Amino acid sequence: MGKANPGKLRIYLGSAAGVGKTYAMLCEGHRRAERGTDVVVGYVEPHGRKHTVELIEGLEVIPRARLPYRGTIFEEMDLDAVLARRPQVALVDELAHTNVPGSRHEKRWQDVEELLRAGIDVISTVNIQHLESLNDVVEKITGVPQRETVPDAVVRGAEQVELVDMTPEALRRRMAHGNIYAPEKIDAALNNYFRAGNLTALRELALLWLADKVDEGLQRYRADHHIRQTWEARERVVVALTGGPEGETLIRRAARIAARSTGGDLLAVHVTRSDGLTGADPAALAAQRRLVESLGGSYHQVVGDDIPQALLTFARAENATQLVLGASRRSWLSSLLTGPGFGQRTIRGSGDIDVHIVTHAHMGRGRGLPRPGGGLTLRRQLAGYLLAAVLAPLLTIVLTSDRGGINLISDVLIYLVAVIVVALVGGFVPAVLLAIASSLLLNFYYVPPIHKFTIAEVNNALALGVFVVVALLVSSVVDIAARRTRQAARAEAESALLATTAGGVLRGQRAVEAVLDRVREAFGMDSVTLLERGDGADGQRAPGAAWAVVAHSGTAPVTAPDDADVEVPVGQDLCLALRGHTLTAADHRVLEAFAAYAAVALEQQRLTAEAEAARPIAEADRMRTALLAAVSHDLRTPLASAKAAVTSLRSPDVTWDAADREELLATADESLDKLTRLVDNLLEMSRLQAGALSVFSRPTALDEVVAAALDDLGPAGRDVVVDIPDSLPEVQADPGILERVIVNLTGNALRYSPAGQPPLLSASALGGRVELHVVDRGPGIPADDLDRIFVPFQRLGDTDNTSGVGLGLALSRGLTEVMGGTLEPDETPGGGLTMIISLPAAVGDGQPATAAPGRRERHGAAGGTASPVTRDGPGVAAAPSGTQGGAAREGTG
Fold first, then answer.
1. Cα separation of 327 and 242, whole Å?
2. How many whole angstroms separate alpha carbon 664 and alpha carbon 785?
């Protein structure tokens, strides 16, 4: 029985081989052993390094398991022995190592996971180039693909990840002093993988990756402890975009600010208001989004009625340290009438977030974007009340002072203009109040009898009545227009947001998570979770079944709809649950559309997964159908020949002399050989298609494999010309599979080579890879058919069906690719084809490609001349100019 609690994983992370990961791991093992902890060495690879070997002494070492594979004995960690020993701590080196076929697990990190499940703490090591997410980046930097990788989630899941760091100069000195590799490998390593530029780039990758992991831990801590204020542990620059022409200036300025600190993040955010800054040009926003992403930043879109508050809420949620805004595009008059702009209001509420107001060419030239009101904003309504309170007495004083020069009609029109102005500024209510007050003032001061609230003439009463009605109508029209503008603005904002989300669902992977991220950002929620009702005991979903989390965004997921602040059901089995704050009815309507998007995205994701799962089945079915169709015909000829020969030999009616018997036996033997090769190819192709082919790559001398392949070809192999330079590095490949590929390709080349022009096998190395050219001078293949030769059951140019089912090249390419190589055809200058096998040079844990003893010889005396090969740097051979090349069309393997 294992311990109740799983073990803890500690990892020493390095940028390259030789920085001291294993040394640090062993030192930690000694420290724990001195404190009384039960520590054992599960597996440590010292690589012949003296100081590492010395540190192993004094620690209990679990004997390694010895596993046979392809006639060789390999040593691996004895997982069962470690589990039986049950130490408190196990030291397990090289987390990304691939175990020998026949081991319980394919990868060593899977062994470590089993130890952790058994309650054993594990201390391990890994280099940054072995992380799965950085595999392609490391290959671009070093030119060497890493075949041994470990999922990032395994390393990120470790309780502790400690960086073992060393400067490139110090690491190269260690290399030069012989503390990492054997003396014969030092020069090649320093001039290839361990160049100063490579080491600097790998070191930066390690530092940045670890910084990201530390940042994840910090965010979890802040969320768990409900910490809202900004912690300036890492620069995060948020730039606010309106879709205006100043956007590119702001983005570039923010990018320069973020670039001043290593690892700084750039985030762009556009706030879509229901009653504010709308009308942004979608094309301009799309262009600005592309610019942000090209500068390494991320684009976000949120919805908020208060733009400054929405910006600051987003910035604090992302733990931003700086906020970049553009200077206002409003004119000075607009600023005077409407008060402080977004920039000033954002600064007042920013707290510990630095706010940068960036000037640009468009400031002070008008907003360029309409600012629709809500009914109207509170600020405008207050301005309307204030204006009404000022205009009423002011007009009364002015008009009373000139009572004799202006008649009643002019007085009414002047007051009407004032009412219209107040309606435009403050809306319906201030204008109605001013209209009532104005009618009373007109009656008291200007309608006879003066200074009395009576009207002597009917015309004057009619004029005042019309005045009040017009004032009310104008005020109502202004208010209705403002409300319609608000509704249109909100509809535009909603449609833009939903259209963006729909496009993401249709385009992107992680569609469900993308929708949830959009919901969380748009509504300012802490957590958004998609819940699905689980299956009952009978496999059917019951109304009372428990809810399960399908996907979530933000902090800890909501586990049940009752725990959410907002819940939106999607049918009977799905529910979108939000935690953070309640939403308005209008927001609920938009949220329902998001919930429908999430359901569609989930269905799309599951259908895609089902399609991916069904694809191998369909491919296998197609292959089986093709195999049966091919076997039904191609097995018939060798079987018929063998059967006829054996039947003739056994016939009692005919007496055969020795020569006839020998000829019949030879016919039977040849037919059975063809049958054997055909069945072998069919079985290998089936295993390859099913993914059941075991591959064990290791450093392999190419010349030795070529020699073995030519021996397999028998007498025909003696005619092949071989040109392999002495300086050629070893390749990382499975020797048995590579030999099979070379036999296939060389046999094809022999079949199509004209008399007196035997095939040529030449090799060269460049950029961390080794290429083997299998050349023939045969009839060649049209350029349009080059890719078709790798389709199973193709025999391009064949005139009969006696030469095989057409699996040779399809099988050869498949076998090459499972070893991490490529097989490509090319035209031979002067006629014929060349088959090019490209394989990675042998590099293990940062080890450089090592030179293997070469062979350059000619088998037999057939025509053809080997081209010379020149050296181009340590361990790298340049391909000869004018090298001949050719390719066979179909092989029987």
1. 12
2. 40
